[in-house]
Amino acid sequence: QQPVQSPQAVILREGEDAVINCSSSKALYSVHWYRQKHGEAPVFLMILLKGGEQKGHEKISASFNEKKQQSSLYLTASQLSYSGTYFCGTDRTGNTPLVFGKGTRLSVIA
Amino acid sequence: DGGITQSPKYLFRKEGQNVTLSCEQNLNHDAMYWYRQDPGQGLRLIYYSQIVNDFQKGDIAEGYSVSREKKESFPLTVTSAQKNPTAFYLCASSRRVQQPQHFGDGTRLSIL
């Protein structure tokens, strides 16, 4: 089952914060986050494993709520370079390919 | 530098024609993947391979075929049976299936 991402799109001004959510109806083993800038290949950001740990990457961090089967990506003090489409990919067993959500388009304006 | 190379960048297909998209990686990764990307649909898995000479169907394998004769190479053939082939195709690789994926720059396929 494809995970559901929300919101579908968001526009921010530089310095503002945003949260992107990724929800599944099934129990998850891990959640992966990727960012794709326009016309470029997706780039890996981070993996969250079940257990609710939080990870960080520069000013971007994420959490995984095992009870809700939801991961959230937090972007703080956004920069123009954060613009792009963010995808979550979910894995239910630890040994199966990811199923990606439809993506969240983030636009950061000056 | 290690990475994934997809070619060509743009490809045009005539009706009834098969076309092959190339994907080569020098990252020494065991797993390789093919995704189709349509506007607003995210990344949908076509085929994946965990080891040489083995591959598995993804969610939208109909009308596509692959081979994995070498660890470095995972070509995708879009057959004439695929009635709506116009899309952006991405190849990726990872050390194992559950590891982070590295993506190529993609091939954009269009119908003439």
Number of strands of chain A: 11
Oligomer type: heterodimer
Order of helices and strands of chain B: EEEEEEEEEEE
List low-pLDDT spans of chain B: none
Description:
The complex is a heterodimer of chains A (110) and B (112). Chain A is mostly beta strands and 110 residues long. Chain A contains no helices and eleven strands. The relative contact order of chain A is 0.34. Chain B is mostly beta strands. In chain B, the strands form two sheets. In chain B, strands 2, 4, 5, 6, 9, 10 and 11 form a seven-stranded mixed sheet that branches. In chain B, strands 1-3-8-7 form a four-stranded antiparallel sheet, with no helix packed on it. In chain B, a hairpin with a 7-residue loop joins strand 9 and strand 10. The termini of chain B are far apart. The chains are: A mainly beta (110), B mainly beta (112). The interface between A and B is medium-sized, with 24 and 22 residues.
Write the layout of secondary structure elements.
The complex is a heterodimer of chains A (110) and B (112).
Chain A lengths: L3 E3 L2 E5 L4 E6 L6 E7 L6 E7 L5 E3 L2 E6 L4 E6 L8 E8 L7 E2 L3 E6 L1
Parallel strand pairs in A: 2-11
Antiparallel strand pairs in A: 1-3, 3-8, 4-5, 4-9, 6-7, 7-8, 9-10, 9-11
Chain B lengths: L3 E4 L2 E4 L5 E7 L5 E8 L3 E10 L2 E4 L6 E3 L9 E3 L8 E8 L7 E2 L3 E5 L1
Parallel strand pairs in B: 2-11
Antiparallel strand pairs in B: 1-3, 3-8, 4-5, 4-9, 5-6, 7-8, 9-10, 9-11
